[in-house]
Amino acid sequence: SCGVTNNQCGSQGNDFPCPTTTSTTTVRRASAGEACINNVCDSFSWCNSDGRCYEACYNTPTTCGNSVPRVNTYYCNYGVSGGRPSCGVTNVNCAGLGGDFPCSR
User: For residues 13 and 51, what is the distance between their CA atoms, to the nearest angstrom?
Assistant: First the structure.
């Protein structure tokens, strides 16, 4: 959750972000499957050229993040890719083909 840190992961990811605020109003960011807001999505997703947010897929022990298939268009289908990755899972064969799962987001 917001503000939780894991000092054991070093530079292997970022801490889970707290919501950004402007005055007393929380700035909303679109999630996977939603339309991008000003070409921006939440920290779990990225904005595609079609104007929609797609879940960011990460490397698994058997599949590079860029090769993880999608389910329901916008979400990563880790069920056929060795399971959802966790902190510390790396795949040395994936240089430039996706990122390792961050220890915290």
Answer: 26
